[in-house]
Amino acid sequence: MKNGYILDPEDPSELVRLLNLDRAITASMGGPLAGGIAEIQPLKNMLDLACGPGGWALDAAFALRKREVEVAGVDISTPMIEYANALARTQLRTNASFEVMDITQPLTFADGAFDAINARFLVGILKGRSQWEALLAEGVRLLRPGGMIRLVESDGLVISTCQSLARLQQSLNRKMHERGYGFSSDGGQTLGITPVLPHLLREAGFQQIRLTPFVFDGSQPNGAWMTCLRLCEFTYYLALQQGLLDDMALAEGETVPLVIEHMLADINATAFGCLTYGLMVTAMRPE
């Protein structure tokens, strides 16, 4: 793939996975404008980096429609952008627009074009400190003085009652670490991105850094277990197809598809419990 995504964005299953992930994380964070974006003055133009099929950008555009805020989304995947633009037309989101762009390269927007920038789960896209530093430098360029950047990340920390899920997640984390994603200091047991974000933002020149943790509850029966089921199904079958689970230690006669089947059965059980932890980081460009 010419892009750096850990999961292939051209695969239709990845589009479905991202739609489910978007809804789950937005709800867990308390809505699309969590973190104080709506309080920025003036707020006229927002940018969503690596927007995927456009879920967050469309939600934000709807929430801010009466204030006539324009929300732009960019992603390297043409199918994702085509889908997002189709949704915008269908949902009459005239204040939302989407373009194909590579966020690892300079973007074709003017300096200071945006009042706020949103980016979620770039840990599965950017590799190494240099790409993160370049992206945040581009964020400084694109934001007007006093503008906000909001980063939402997870270290791949999934705590559940399901041993199969733990094995699959640990294998995926290790493979991501091997391929250069994240900043793991524990050999890929976690991705190690959240502790690094404040330092990266300060180095880039951002100020007023604020950290807000959130939790996605995928438990039975009161949590979003059906969303959790779909996310796990799409994530690990895609990871299997793309060779990201080939280092799993398997028992005699066991296969990775069998481990995935056991995981899905456990998620459907009434005693299933699952919490996924993430961090929202907001920071301001100095006036």
UniProtKB/TrEMBL annotation:
Residue span, Methyltransferase domain: 47-147
InterPro entries according to UniProt: Methyltransf_25, SAM-dependent_MTases_sf
CDD domains according to UniProt: AdoMet_MTases
Pfam family, one: Methyltransf_25
Domain of life: Bacteria
Protein name: Methyltransferase domain-containing protein
Lineage of origin: Bacteria, Bacillati, Chloroflexota, Ktedonobacteria, Ktedonobacterales
